[in-house]
Amino acid sequence: MDDRVRLSLDEVRELVTAVMSRHGLAPAHVEAVADVMVAGERDGGGSHGIFRVLMCLNSIRAGKVSLDAEPVVRDVAPGVVRVDAGGAFAPLAFRRGLPVLVQKAKAVGLAAMAVNDCCHFAALFPEVEAIARAGLVGFAFTPSHAWVAPAGGSRPLLGTNPIAFGWPRPGRDPFVFDFATSAAARGEIELHRREGTPTPEGWGVDPSGNPTTDADAIMAGAMLPFGGHKGSALSLMVELIAGPLVGDLTSVDSIAYDEGARGAPRGGELLLAIDPSRMLGEAAPEHLARAEAIFEGVVSQGARLPSVRRYEARARSLAEGVLIPRKLVDEVRALLD
Ligand code: NDP
Ligand code: PYC
Q1: Are 31 and 94 a contacting pair, CB within 8 Å?
Q2: Domain 4-182+225-293+305-336 carries which CATH code?
C-alpha cells in the first residue's frame, strides 16, 4: 500500500508556517524557513523538505536557536560581506545578505559572504541557484555536526559538510549540484532508521569501526565520507573554509553545543560569487556558450546532468503537488497540538 499523502505546495507551506509560528518563530523567519523547506519538498528532496521541521523543533525546544534575531549585515571589504545571524536559523540571514553579495560580485568580480552564528538545517541548492539566477557562478559550504569519520578513521570528527555549486545558463535554468561530502546526508540515514530499512553499503561503521548497513549502528558509530580520501579531504576543506576562515564553529564544536538535542548544526557558512562578465568582459557570452557544449557532451552520451531531476520534480510538484509519507505528515501535524 502507498501510505503517502498528496499535498499541494501551498498546503506544505501552510503546514510548515503553522507549526513554526505555533512554536514562537518570528514571522520573517517563518517565511524564510518555510521557503527552503517547500523548495526541498518541491524538488523531490525527501530528507530536506518538510522532514526538516523535526530538526528545527528539536532546536527550538532545547532553546538552541534564537526565535527572532534580526540578521545584521556588515560590509567589511570591497569583496566581503558578513551577516551575523544572531543564533537564528540561516535562511533569513542568507536572504538579507544575498543582494549585497550579488552587488559586490558585480562590482569587483569575486565576492565572499560569511554567514555567522546561524543554525543551518537546510539544503544549499536554493542559495547557489539564487546566485546563478543573478548571472553569477555560486558556491556554498557549511559544516554540520561531527558525525563523519575521516577516511581511514572510525571516530566522528567531520560534518556531513555539503558543497553546492551553481552555474548560470542564459535562457535556461541554472546548472546546480548540491551534495553532502559524506556518502549520504545524515537525513538519508535518519529516513532509513525511521523506515527500518538497511542503508546501502559504504555509508558508515558501527561503534567498533566495522562496516554496517544498520542505520542505528551507524548513528551510534560513524558515517563515512564519499569517495574515500577524496571526499574526506573535501570535507576537511569545508571545515576549514566555513569554520576557522569565517571565524565560526567546526562540526565538533557544533555537536558539543547541541548537547544531544538533535537540533540543527550551529556555526557558519561561506558563499562565493564570481561574475563571468567581470572575468571575461565582452567575451563572456562566447565562453558561456562553450560551457553549453560541455553540458551537451554529458547529455549526448546518455548521462544526466545534476539538477535535471530537480527541475523535472519541480515542474511535477507545481502541477500536481507532492507525495509525503503519511507518518511524517501526521507527526508534523501533531506539533500543532
Ligand atoms: P544527493 O546524493 O541526493 O544528490 C547529490 C547531487 O548529485 C544532486 O545535485 C543531484 O542532482 C546529483 N545527482 C544524483 N544522482 C545523479 C546522477 N545519477 N547523475 C547526475 N547527477 C546526479 O545529495 P545528498 O543526499 O548528499 O544531500 C542532500 C541534501 O542535504 C543537499 O541538498 C545538501 O545541501 C543537504 N545537506 C545539508 C547539510 C547542512 O548542514 N545544512 C548537511 C548535509 C547535507 P539532482 O538534484 O538533479 O538529483
Ligand atoms: O542531512 O546531514 C544532513 C543535514 C545536516 C543538517 C541539515 N542536514
Answers
A1: no
A2: 3.30.1370.60
Is the pLDDT confidence value at 2 over 90? no
Region 51-74 average pLDDT: 98
Q: What pTM was estimated for this model as a whole? A: 0.97
Sign of the alpha-carbon torsion through 307, 313, 318, 324: negative
Cβ neighbors of 281 (< 8 A, separation 6 or more) are: none
Pairing of strands 80-84, 110-119: parallel
pLDDT tens for each residue of 66-114: 999 999 999 999 999 999 999 999 999 999 999 999 999 999 999 999 9
Annotated domain spans of the chain: 4-182+225-293+305-336
Alpha carbon 278 to its chain's center: 28
Residue 48 falls in the annotated catalytic set = yes
Which position among 21, 23, 31, 47 bears the catalytic label? 47
Residues lining ligand 1, judged by CB closer than 6 Å?
A: 45, 47-48, 120, 122-125, 142, 144, 160, 162, 164, 177-180, 184-185, 187-188, 265, 304, 306-310
